[in-house]
Amino acid sequence: MRQKFKYYWEDFSVGVVREFGQRKITEQEIVEFAREYDPQRFHISQDEAEQTIFKGLIASGWQTCSIMMRMMCDDFLLDSSSMGSPGLENLKWHKPVRPNDVLSLRTEVLEARAMKSKPDTGLVHLLWQCKNQEGEVVTSMQGWMMFLKRDSQPSS
Q1: What gap in Å lies between CA 16 and CA 111, rounded to an integer?
Q2: Who's near 105: CB < 8 A, 6+ residues apart?
Q3: In what order do the strands lie in the sheet with 17-24?
């Protein structure tokens, strides 16, 4: 029996905007992530970061992307028929994310179309914009996602 989801490809019409998330990032989280995955001086040491163009500690852009993904999962992706993504494009880090920033996410459907090779699946092209507490875009990217269609049978 096919699993029932809250969101299918048909729920992602062009122009649909979702705004969600309120995630405060701490200095400890920034440093822990950076030590493990991106140990550049402006991510792991407040003193050294003050000597850079950033004039203080900043989060890794990859950490910001990870937080964006988590917010999307929590808001709708885990309740969807998502079949993954063939990739991202136009990833940009516009402004540094600093300790105690509160991040939120805005997604907008740019395009939605059926897949010719998999009739049970549709593609959705999304713009993701991560904003800080001032409403400034700190990170943006575009990417395609694949979702099962509501009433079709999965391809083999």
Answers
A1: 10
A2: 19, 20, 21, 68, 71, 72, 75, 128, 129, 130, 131
A3: 17-24, 102-114, 121-131, 137-148, 87-93
Q: What is the CATH number of the domain that holds 86?
A: 3.10.129.10
- This prediction has a pTM of 0.92
Would you give the distance in Å from CA 112 to the centre of its chain? 18
Our count of domains for the chain comes to 1
Going by pLDDT thresholds of 50, 70 and 90, the confidence category of residue 1 is very low
DSSP-derived 3-state class of residue 91: strand
Rg (CA), the chain: 18
130 lies in some domain: yes
Which amino acid is residue 67, in one-letter code?
A: I
